[in-house]
């Protein structure tokens, strides 16, 4: 058996026709992937009616210079827990480097820094995450369902959530209209 190809710092794009509706057109930034499992932050959809200012209000943090950006649906696990995927130019008490490509923070200090204007220069905020147990993601990747792509910073920071899925496929040189979700038999 070959060693799994770990995907930290890459994106998973849901294949057309994914059976789990929570992942329809999903774009997941994989933030950790090793023998113990994987965690990713969904960036393909925002939460209707919730913005960064709303979240800061709930946490009693002054908006300061923070833009009123959308909050993304990070995934179906711990949907009230917040995460910020951000550039590597800032680090806080729990910040994790993700393959040298971006960073992940999950404590309130990153939100305070963003509001104060001394946080990361680029960021995306989300509630919830997608998680896989030991070997689970590796198993899923052997079946149709996900396309792993490298993507670039424009996909992460400059592309609106509703366009990330199609832009991710385009960056990979794949036309998702040509993909099928069913396997044939011979």
UniProtKB/TrEMBL annotation:
Per the record, what is one GO cellular component? cytosol
Where does the record place a coiled coil?
Answer: none
InterPro entries xrefs: AlgH-like
Family from the record = Belongs to the UPF0301 (AlgH) family.
Q: What is this protein called?
A: UPF0301 protein GGQ80_001409
> What organism is the protein native to?
Sphingomonas jinjuensis
